[in-house]
Amino acid sequence: MGLWQALPYLLLPGAEEEDGNMEGDSGFITVQKVYYPLLCILGIPANLFTFYMICFRKCGMSDTAIIYLSCLAIVDTFYLVWVILLDLTLTFWQLQPFWHSHPACGIMGFLQYGSLYSSSWIVVVFTIERYLVLSSTSAKQHFSQAKVTRLTCVSIILVSHLASVPMGWINVVTPKNFTREGKNVTLPWCHYRGHIYSTVLVWVTTFLSGGIPIILVIIFNSLIGHHLTRARKMFTKEDRRVMRGGGTKGMVRRTIFLLGTVSVSFVVLSLPRFVTYCILRTKYNHDWFDRNDYRIPINLISDLANMLQNLNSTTNFLLYCMVSRGFRQELIHTLTCKSKARELGSFLTQTTMKVFSLVDHKTQPTRDPITVVLTNLKQTQ
């Protein structure tokens, strides 16, 4: 198990499999060996491409939505690097990942939870901000400023990493004897520190990264839905048709629809891990419990929940494609280079029209000087 997957039931990855202690469904282990590298291969480029599309293409989003969603793409990318690539992928493909040594053991915990906090609370704050914008005119004027949104996102990331500093001390590195290729070797072992400090901190972290964000997202999305339902009754069919058609109201509606999709995805994919973790920490919190035994249903269910939550950091690109027409259109234009061709065609058309305008102006027929002279002479005679 890796730092992330087995916390706080952390075991040395690779050695248990080699010694035959990883019991149960070897097919599920094979699935994870393929699943986590695949998440990295698809998720990291998808998040970076999403960041480019949101920031540098016109996807029909408000300025505040662009800032929140681009920050979400960046922190999700870091989550994929720290948790999926360097932890879980190496756990299943290397006998001794580098983070079993000091100080990498503590640094990995800090970075992993810093990115998880950032991702969760960006979704929460964005949801709360959208509700305040809908319910208060003064809040709309304040939160509609891009400067305020940037400051908010930077504050979330800084506070999230500051709150994750204590996670650097929940694990400890100690030497341990293992059998490798018929030989006894002593290797550093990064494992959970079984102190009351670590137990309390892990429970606090569980609620800060999962329980509280999930509850807040559900509450404020419900309030947004109630507000929209009540406001809908105040407009005629013609008003609603105009609001759907475009303008500021239409942009707000599209942004809220997109946020709702992201929020629902966050809750659906994160809730199973929170529930299974609470079960593990209460009903199965015993020294003799083997977290690596997949014959025990809760171990299998818990790791499936881990896989779902980790999928949350890779799905935003697909969500934007499904629910945002502007994002889909810009994606098609980018992939087919239609946008560049359209811009070039527009530039050439404008240039050509300017040239013809100048030529027409210079070649306008004027009265022949000789005709003017003869006409004047005739009039004089």
Automatic annotation (TrEMBL):
It is a multi-pass membrane protein. GO terms for molecular function: G protein-coupled receptor activity. InterPro entries: GPCR_Rhodpsn (IPR000276), GPCR_Rhodpsn_7TM (IPR017452), Orphan_GPCR1 (IPR052477). GO terms for cellular component: plasma membrane. The chain crosses the membrane at residues 34-54, 66-86, 106-128, 148-170, 201-224, 256-275. Residues 46-320 form the G-protein coupled receptors family 1 profile domain. SUPFAM superfamilies: Family A G protein-coupled receptor-like. Keywords: Cell membrane, G-protein coupled receptor, Membrane, Receptor, Transducer, Transmembrane, Transmembrane helix. It is found in: Cell membrane. Belongs to the G-protein coupled receptor 1 family. This is G-protein coupled receptors family 1 profile domain-containing protein. It comes from Oncorhynchus kisutch. The lineage of its organism: Eukaryota, Metazoa, Chordata, Craniata, Vertebrata. The gene is LOC116376450.
